[in-house]
Structure formats: C-alpha cells, structure tokens
Amino acid sequence: ISFRFNDLPTELALIIFKHAAQPPFAQYAPFTRDPYSSALSLCQVSKIVRRAALPEILHTVLLSTTRDLLAFVRALRMQKTYMDQQHDLSFDYASCVHMMSIGHFRGPLRSPPNSYFSVPIPELEGEIDISLLAPVILGASSLAINFSNLNLLSKCLKHACNSDVDLNVDHKNSLLPWSMRSLTLLGHFFDPWWPFMESVHGYAFLASIQHLTLL
Q1: What is the pLDDT of residues 122-153, one digit of tens each?
Q2: Phi, psi (rounded to 5 degrees) for 56
Q3: Are residues 135 and 157 in the same domain?
C-alpha cells in the first residue's frame, strides 16, 4: 500500500511534522551529532512547516558549547531584524522556550557537566546581546546552568530589573520580570555564587524560585 504525503489532510500532515520536529535528546546522549538537525531540515520544507516545527525545536533549548550560545544569539538577532521588517519569517522565540540548559554535557542531560565556556564570558560580551537573551532565558520555566556561568544569568536579571518592577515587595504577590520556577545549578561550586546571592536581583530571583536543585 502506498500513498502520497500531499494526499493527507493538512491538519494531519502538520501533526506529523510537529512530532518529527521534536529533538530526540535521549538518543544523542553522547552527542555524536546535532539532535536538532532533523528538525532544522524540516524548517526548510516550507514556511508553514517551519512555523509548525519551530515551537517543538524551541521547547527545550540546549546550549552545550560557546558555539551553540553564540549561534543562538545570532538567531535571536536575526529574528529581531525580521520582526522590525515585518518579515514572513519573523517568529517569537521567547514565547516557545520552556526549558533551557546552558552547559557542556557528556552523557544524559541530567549528568553533571564539565567546563562549559572555552572562552570566558567577559571576552564574549561583545557578541552576547543580553537584551535579546534575557527575555528568552528568564521567560523559560526551567533553567539548568553551570555555577561558573552564573554571571550570564546575573546579567539577564540586571537587564530585566532595569524596569519599574519594585523588588522590595512580597514576591508571592508581585509581578516579577521572569517566569522561571525551577533552577538547577550544575558542576563545582564557584565564587560567582556569593555575589549573585547577595545582589538585590539575585536575592529576589532566588526567593521566587520554587525548585532549586544542585547537581
């Protein structure tokens, strides 16, 4: 029995595309190749397929290396340009990202990472646009990040807190500039933890977190 794919109802075809676009992280524990590769290929089929696939790709964003982080920032910058131009390819990444992991992993996602950045964050500041990253990182409900990369989270929080939000209020009854409820800190304990915890934005952020995990 054979059939042509274009004979399928549009709704069913889109369901198939969405399922196919889900990155199979478990199969790529050793990361022999990019778990996003198949989904990214689907995005080249058509604009409609791209819009169906992107939410599945962005649901869980894994930034394992410096290259991944910079590529993601470039993608965000490109989307901002598209939105400014009201381009057909414009897409709101932040609304689709629910889970993020920033760190270098060897093995399953839950395994403790080794060193993440081959280049220190301060040397990458010229290429990392916090104004683009902050809404995505802080809009996720769950974040796993290496202790050594807390400066990145701190910069995002500082950017978000440069608003009219009053941080000296009861966090349970206030609208905070982040949606995150779960934070996982990975790797060895690093000095950046203390400045982060003692800062106004860091303290407010940690006070609002419902689940804090140390691995």
Answers
A1: 445 556 789 999 999 999 999 999 888 888 89
A2: -70, -40
A3: yes
